[in-house]
Amino acid sequence: MQFMLVASPDYLKTYGTPQIPDDLQRHQAVHFFSSKTGKVRNFILEHEGAEQEIPTIRKLAINNGDAIVAAALAGIGICQLPSFMVQGYLTEGKLEKVLGDYGAGSLPINALYPQNRHLSSKVRAFIEWVAELFAKCRLLNIS
């Protein structure tokens, strides 16, 4: 699952558009907060094979992706979100991609099953089917 940095046109008009990752240090940001771990996920950018964690001015930390999208649309700050959650808003011009020359990280999508049991042919077929669907899903593979 690919991520991207986005912000509303109003936010970028008010605060400017970052040109390099270090510019993010002067921008307000909305981060994902994991209620399970109690940690905030910082922005991760990838460039030429190297990952870099970027410090920002943390305006807000939220544990719900839809609420982060709403914050981005409201112009609260720059957000790092899965591409499938924001693609429609990008197409409509309600959000703009930030630092598009940099990858914004990804997270794996996992299928879990009990390790101490034999993997039935039905479960294996289901996992292979889901993997094939995800591989073909354009929205999951946009970076």
TrEMBL record:
InterPro entries: LysR-type_TF_proteobact-type, LysR_subst-bd. Signal peptide: none annotated. Residues 2-134 form the LysR substrate-binding domain. One of its GO terms (biological process) is DNA-templated transcription. GO terms for molecular function: DNA-binding transcription factor activity; sequence-specific DNA binding. PANTHER family: HTH-TYPE TRANSCRIPTIONAL REGULATOR (PTHR30537), LYSR FAMILY TRANSCRIPTIONAL REGULATOR (PTHR30537:SF72). Belongs to the LysR transcriptional regulatory family. This is LysR, substrate-binding protein. It comes from Corchorus olitorius. The lineage of its organism: Eukaryota, Viridiplantae, Streptophyta, Embryophyta, Tracheophyta.
